[in-house]
Every structure is written in C-alpha cells, then in structure tokens.
Amino acid sequence: QYYGIWSSEKVKSRVAEVIFSWTVWFPQEVKIRDAYQMLKKQGIVKEDPKVPEDKILPPPSPRSHNSIFDTDEEKSKLLARLLRSRRSEDLQAANRLIQSTVREEQEKSAKASRRVNAINEVSENVKRMDELLENYKRQELSKSDQETLHTLFQRCEKLRPLLFRLASETADDDEALAEILQANDELVQVLGRHRQVVAGH
C-alpha cells in the first residue's frame, strides 16, 4: 500500500519534470504549455519543478514548422485526456506519448534536412559541371579542372540512388517529391551532357 503511494508520487513528479522541460524547450507548443498549466490549476503540480539545467531534456534538432500535436487531433485529444487523469499509469502513458511524438518530429526534421542538403548539392554540382563542360568543349580545361570534372561526375552518379531513397521517404509530400524529381532530372541531363561532350572529344 505505502509503496504504491510512493511510486505514484514519484511518477507524477518525474512526469511533471518532463513536461516542464518540454515547456522550456518548446515555448511555441501551445498544447504542451496549456496541459502543464492545467496540471497546476488542478493542483497536481504545486509549483514548477526545480530541475538542474543539466537534467532538463535537451532540445531536438531543428523542427518543421507544423507540430504533430497541431496536425494530429486524435493524438492531441489523447494527450489532454491522459494529462487530466490522476492515475500514475496514465501519466506514464502521457510521458511516453510526448517523447514518441517528439521523436517523430525529430525524424521528420532530419529527413527534411537530408532532402534539402541533397537538392542543394545537386544544384551546385550541376552548375559547376556545366561550367567545366563548356570549357571542355572549347578545349580550355586545365588538368586540375579535368580531375574536378571527373570527381563531380562520380559524385553525381552516387547522388542518384540517394535521391531515389529520399523520394521513397517523401511519397506523402507532393511538393517535396516534386523537388526531388526535378533534382533527379537535372542530374540525368548533366550526366548525359558529360558523356556526350567527353565521348565526343
């Protein structure tokens, strides 16, 4: 009996610390802030936890503009219901839901970052290859530039499978998928120009 009470209070305290940490790192997350304020109004949280700076949960990688809590109404309602509960298992479930949701956002942000980086690299490589190919056609390419052109060609060959993989990860985002397909078209074209120009000399 007493261990049950002790465990419940310990769980509540830890969940309060976790949610308080999220309000620090995610001030723009209205729903998390509101949920925390609701716990305070209900008397479940008496005061802000005294959490050492090194214990506050660290911030994730850059986030996408829209929160999963904003776009997933069912998940938002479930979180609110769990946080209103006084049962320790519900508070634990709320903690797990918050952590899994933030992990989803981190993964989504990481994928977006990989996509942007790959598309930018394609754009820069295509532009540089076109410049070198023009000089190659005029037979104005130095030995060093020829090596650079060959290196860029090899890198662009390796970027194509990366773009295919990114496209499969982005199948549910039409705009992002269109950007990837456009980058792939640019790659195909510059690789074709390279073969045509180099083979013709």
Automatic annotation (TrEMBL):
Coiled coil: none annotated. Transmembrane segments: none annotated. Residues 72-199 form the GAT domain. Residues 50-69 are annotated as: Disordered. The gene is Gga2_0. GO terms for cellular component: early endosome; trans-Golgi network. Residues 1-47 form the VHS domain. This is GGA2 protein. It is a peripheral membrane protein. GO terms for biological process: Golgi to plasma membrane transport; intracellular protein transport; protein localization to cell surface. It comes from Columbina picui (Picui ground-dove).
